[in-house]
Amino acid sequence: MEQTPTRQAASDAVGGQGWRYLLGALRTSVPVASLGQAAEVVARPVAACGDDADGHLRADVRSDRVVLTLQALDRAALTARDLDLAHRISATVRDLGLRTEPEIGTGAPRSVQLLEIAIDALDIAAVRPFWRAVLGYTDEAGTGGPTDPIVDPVGQGPTIWFQRMDRPRPQRNRIHFDICVPHDEAAGRIEAALTAGGRLVSAADAPAFWVLADIEGNEACVTTWQGRDD
């Protein structure tokens, strides 16, 4: 099995190429001027990846940007091959006079990111089948245990993961969003949320995650890859 790089090694290897490490994947954006240009852009990374394209590359094609994600899809994990593919893709995009970037500090609507939804439960194994069925989701690649995350099989919806509670918590939201952002975007995102009326609930586990809440106490976490290694 191909080696899985550490989070730090993955971030260091491709950060200068405009990619960011997010939840076991690499993600970047290519700003474009039209859907036609976007189609041309996405063809180049597919060609650059060759036979690895189907197993590693996902592309979200829009008229203003192409968002590219690299991950070994059969394992839902990052491999050394993905790092190599990121460099190949960035090089071929530059040949078009364009660039791969995380859209931080560029005036873009937001940076690249990944969204997860966390559901608190006393008995994860009991509630997981319901959410798997009602959402039309499936097991994450390489998993399938009674407490593991579930994912959209076509890769459009956010991953759902389950957080075990040690006691009932009435009058408190039990579903919250985890917004995984580039490590160099977290401070700006948190500042914006606080300026917009939010409050910081906890930074005890930062920089892995910060817990924020709106004025009514509904919580969300801003997360990064940092601070997660033992």
TrEMBL record:
It holds the Pfam family Glyoxalase_6. Residues 117-223 form the Glyoxalase-like domain. InterPro entries: Glyas_Bleomycin-R_OHBP_Dase, Glyoxalase_6. It comes from the Bacteria. PANTHER family: CONSERVED PROTEIN, HYPOTHETICAL FUSION PROTEIN. This is Glyoxalase-like domain-containing protein.
